[in-house]
Amino acid sequence: MSRIGRMPITLPKGVNVDIQGQKVSVNGPKGQLSYEVRPEITVKLENGQLVVERSSDERAHRAYHGLTRALLANMVHGVSEGFRRVMTVEGVGYRAAMQGQSLVLQVGYSHPVEIVPPPGIKFSVEKGDRIFTIEGIDKALVGQVAAKIRALREPEPYKGKGLLYEGERIRRKAGKAGKK
Q1: Mean pLDDT of all residues in 25-46
Q2: How far is C-alpha 167 from the geometric centre of its chain's CA atoms?
Q3: Are 129 and 96 in contact (CB under 8 A)?
Q4: What's the rounded Cα separation, in Å, for the pair 170 and 158?
Q5: Which domains does the chain have, with CATH numbers?
Q6: What are the distances in angstroms from CA 39 to CA 43, 51, 66, 79, 143?
Q7: What is the full DSSP assignment across 120-172?
Q8: Residues sharing a CB contact under 8 Å with residue 92, sequence separation 6 or more, in sequence order
Q9: Do the Cβ atoms of 24 and 69 come closer than 8 Å?
Q10: What pTM was computed for the model?
């Protein structure tokens, strides 16, 4: 049996779960998320905990068992505490700023790049203009937005300039071999 799939999901205070057939809706202080569970998987609410079970031991069913449990756990965490991704701007003249709800980045192009947040995402700029945060209740959406922003100017290995995730280290390369 899946070690991840068989662990129950404890519901924090203020989080309500509604199970209607194969649709699971999770409500919390930060918002609401829903997920359509595959027919091989059943979700039950027992003693304030969500329990995920599968119909058989087929390979695909075992995979969906762990996946469903992980997605539901992320939903519960998202509506109760939320997810955030912190990014750093590195480079001379590179900076981030807020313009209303939008994030404006100057990362070496001839023009500033404006990023409008999709529904459910909020940007904030901290520490001057070098660090910004992406926040939301959907873990996949927060990660996707962060990846798209990072793709605007990926960190390069020679000078280390670009958009980095917090804690990310860039393997630096030496310059020209002829330079001593």
Answers
A1: 92
A2: 16
A3: yes
A4: 9
A5: 9-80 (3.90.930.12), 83-165 (3.90.930.12)
A6: 10, 15, 14, 25, 27
A7: TEEEEEETTTTEEEEEES-HHHHHHHHHHHHHHSPPPTTT--EEEETT-----
A8: 161
A9: no
A10: 0.87
The one-letter code for the residue type at 150 is R
**What number of helices (H) and strands (E) belong to the chain?**
2, 13
Q: Any residues with CB less than 8 A from the CB of 69 and at least 6 apart, and which?
A: 2, 4, 5, 6, 7, 9, 52
The neighbour count for residue 48, using CB atoms within 10 Å, is 12
Q: State the amino acid at position 105 in one-letter form.
A: L
- How many CB atoms sit inside 10 A of residue 123's CB? 21
Q: Quick one: which of 20, 48, 47 has its CA closest to 34?
A: 20
Q: At 5, is the pLDDT very low, low, confident or very high (cuts 50, 70, 90)?
A: confident
For 68-81, write each residue's pLDDT tens digit. 999 999 999 999 99
Per-residue pLDDT of 93-138, as tens digits, reads 999 999 999 999 999 899 999 999 999 999 999 878 899 999 999 9
Rg (CA), the chain: 21
What six digits make up the tokens of 12? 């924090």
Q: Copy the structure tokens of residue 32.
A: 């609401």
Number of Cα atoms under 13 Å in the Cβ half of residue 145: 26
